[in-house]
Amino acid sequence: MNIEVRKLTIEDYNDVTQSTLEAYENKLGVWSKEEISELLAIFPEGQICVSVDGKVVATALSIIINSKKTNLHSNYDSIISNGKFLKHDPEGDILYGIEVFVHPNYRQLRLGRRLYDIRKELCEERNLKSIVAGGRIPNYHQYSSEMSPREYIEKVKRKEIYDSTLAFQLSNDFNVKKILKNYLKDDKESMEYATLLEWNNIYYEPNLYSNSPTKRNIRLGLVQWEMRLFNGLQDFYDQVEFFVRTVSDYGSDFILFPEFFNTPLMSPYNHLKEVDAMHQLARMTDEIVKKIQEFAITYNVNIIAGSMPNLIDEKLYNTSFLCHRSGKLDSFSKIHITPNEFKYYAMEGGNEIKVFDTDCGKVGLLICYDVEFPEVSRILADQGMQILFVPYMTDTQNGYTRVRSCAQARAIENECYVAIAGSVGNLPKVNNMDIQYSQSAVFTPSDFSFPNNGVKSEATPNAEMVLISDVDLYLLKELHEYGTVKTMKDRRKDLYDVILRK
């Protein structure tokens, strides 16, 4: 599955029409091709869609209005000038949402949330004061004989009544400012009532036209995972989904799981030799990765799925999978195999060093022991890496200290952020995986714009928890150009260099 959020084009019109008919069950009509063409002509960046495998299945349409010249309490036809969009004002101060719909077959993917997020980013980039929209209350017709619209809305807020549209808008930080009567003609489900919704841009600056369009703050979610036995694969999925959902609810862009976090699933094979048990686990990897890809799409978060044993041509690798929220999949196999991994599992080392492009910048992946080899991180830094993710598994504190100290050094010398996540607890029924030691953390370079000790945040040692941390990509750019020291620029390449041989 490939998911893409992009600007709408007129070539998408047939898909838009079909999705509209399905979303509204052909009760509210469709946009004409002329109306879509007009919107694309006057405000192309405000017309957004989501395509799944090349088919547009969700759409958001909007215009900009001047709040001093437009009566926000007007009905829908007045706001859109009966499809002429005469109230659109490029110099206005409010983004007015005139349409959002998702094909019902794709609603489980939470595509509406992506559209709302893009709208919020557009509002901030254009330095607009707020997003305003008239919101339908499509379940109201079931309660109209026994309560007023105001009572209905209050009960939806208190979750005594469920209205999918209003509940979704409230969960996306919109506030109900007023109840609108006779808002949308022929909306019998809402009895022609609507809510006047508003989301405020806290970054709004009067008299300033626009802000930078580049995403600056990236939110990381690190899972300090407790090793526990599972009754089966579904129990494991439930635990993974719990953390993904939790981190997604906090608006995280990435979630990082530890190295070999799925090894509790080896317990049924504990009677086998370690290498044979690991091969049995590796045969589950494709299925597990596919499920985690679904979580990445559904919860709109990029997932670094720790690492898992991976069979390629009957050779065993320790592989980390980057499941993009777009549906794309990348992978990295551990390059430096520890003596333990070779002795017990006959693992092979990977042969590829590269950064990955994500919707939040360029990231690198290294697995545990890899971070103790500074040449690899330097190559990634030369390729533009901004955040390095390091899933690890260490059984003792001295092993953890090696990983932590080297990870912190990599952040300083490569002018990047480094996030490390490991496992805690005990796993007595899985050979060679019995004890764990971890303190997950996010490390930064060491300069005035960063914490004095180079530690952005760190988890409680040896306790299962989630660590949420924001990192500012602009600070890396400033450090590179204006830092007290400039480790990347000041290298003596006339004297030495680090090169990638293949």
How does this model look, in words?
The protein is built from 13 helices and 21 strands. It is α/β, with parallel strands linked by helices. The protein folds into 2 domains: 3-200, Gcn5-related N-acetyltransferase (GNAT) (Aminopeptidase); 217-482, Nitrilase/N-carbamoyl-D-aminoacid amidohydrolase, CATH 3.60.110.10. The strands form 3 sheets. Strands 8, 9, 10, 11, 12, 13, 18 and 21 form an 8-stranded mixed β-sheet that branches. The protein has a 7-stranded mixed β-sheet with strand order 1-2-3-4-5-7-6. Residues 3-162 form the N-acetyltransferase domain. This is GNAT family N-acetyltransferase. Residues 218-473 form the CN hydrolase domain. It comes from Faecalibacter macacae.
